[in-house]
Amino acid sequence: MTFLKHPDCIYIGGEWHPTAEREAVINPADETLLIEAPVGSAAQVDAAIAAARHAFDHGEWPRLPVARRQAALTRFLDALDARREQIVAMIVAEAGSTQMLASFLQYGIPMKHARRTVELASRSPVTPLAPELTPNASGGLTLGSAVVVREPVGVVAAISPYNFPFFLNVGKVVPALAAGCTVVLKPSPYTPMEALILGEAADEAGLPKGVLSIVTGDIEAGKLLTSDPRVDLVHFTGSDKVGEAIQAQGAPTLKRIVMELGGKSALIVRGDADLQAAAMAGLGGFTTHCGQGCALTTRMLVHNSVRAQFVDMMKAMLAHVKIGNPADPSVSFGPLIREVARARTERYVQIAQDEGASLAWGGKRPDGLDKGFFFQPTLFDNVRNDSRLAQEEVFGPIGAVIGFDHDDEAIAMANASDFGLAGAIYSADAGRAYELALRIRTGGVAINGGAGTMLSDAPFGGIKRSGYGREYGEDGLNEFTYQKVISFSAK
Fold first, then answer.
1. Does the reported pTM lie above 0.70?
2. Domain 9-261+467-488 fold
3. Where do the structural domains in the chain lie, given as residue ranges?
4. Residue 166: other Cβ atoms inside 10 A
5. Are 262 and 421 in contact (CB under 8 A)?
6. pLDDT by residue (tens digit) across 308-341?
7. In whole angstroms, what is the distance from residue 190 CA to residue 359 CA?
8. Among 292, 303, 283, 306, residue whose Cα is nearest residue 335
9. Alpha carbon of 342 to those of 28, 192, 439, 452: distances in Å?
């Protein structure tokens, strides 16, 4: 399948520009070459920033009536939906996603969120404040009030990772544009196609020149985006270590930054839980997209009265996981993105064993898959909560089962983490589960499976080393704005 109309170009200021350098993008399931992708130069990244700055300062986009921006973004999303089959195939080939995950979560959910974001953009940008009476110099009273106005923050540098690239590209670009900002998007070098295709949709939708640019490049290209004074906001998803570097790079220009970083989220299984449902959630918590998800619940805190039964259920489920090339729609577990990710996962298997954890399932490369970066889904029992396996983000398919005896112990262990992104509780007592959820220091908690989907209006994000700021819903849209107070008196 030919994925892109302009496979040798990046998108700068509404135009396609070839690059002097290329980099191979491979399918992680079979290591075949997908594309010799364009790699942007420093001069091209600079040009993209300049185009975004000019479009914001002198173009019509930030000053358009919101209904016209909504119409343009609806055309943009319609153009993506017209490419749905092509994009899903791209996600499977480039990111190594299974077909079900690619269709539902990697494509369907972000498009649902994007449509809702466009709707939310019609909210009033003006909030009136209550009037107040204040004594004045003439001995009378001044009747004064004010309005709070939300305005677009400016030029946004959006930097996305390889695990859910289309999801995160759309989740950054659409709210930024809906708020009236201009955007320079930089994807992971592993998954550039799922960003570049947004340029085709922008062309078809007729977005104004300079409103959206899409550049590729290495770490130095990222540094240009995070340090340039013409960029007003950096919106980043990735590891906490890279988040540290971005925060440092943005500090000299006091740049606004929104970061959604790593996680080591806890799934708490109380003794009264529906174990079948909890075990299914536990399985998904480290096998979804081969464990390459920051919000996955890779720490399973299980009441000791049911822990052995829970582990046995998980092992029975793991026996039915089909590992292979996700080009096969029956495959439920695909590859890691690259060899470096598989090698890291192997190191953590050894670390866990050295720390005394019990290997319950997996722990090696699967037999018969000589091509691709496959690794068995791996389950450890008898894990200590202070161990490296329990505290460090593997970003690979390893689950850790940790026993507890009472609720307070489970909450203490859940909170004994440098991260705070997600979490889950399974219990027959929903009221008690809610009380416990209030005590967990994290950005979100799902009780007994949660809402069944990522709600479009729910803010998503973390605390501690999981980052700050929120995505999606009105809170996510507001991250791309600043507030201005305009006060006046009744004279």
1. yes
2. Aldehyde Dehydrogenase; Chain A, domain 1 (3.40.605)
3. 9-261+467-488, 266-455
4. 28
5. yes
6. 999 999 999 999 999 999 999 999 999 999 999 9
7. 31
8. 292
9. 11, 21, 35, 30
pLDDT by residue (tens digit) across 435-491?
999 999 999 999 999 998 889 999 999 999 999 999 999 999 999 999 999 999 987
| Residue 146: Cβ-neighbour burial (10 angstroms; 0-12, 13-18, 19+) | middle
Q: Which residues are catalytic?
A: 260, 294
* Fold designation for 266-455: Aldehyde Dehydrogenase; Chain A, domain 2 (3.40.309)
How far apart, in whole angstroms, are the C-alpha atoms of residue 367 and residue 363?
12
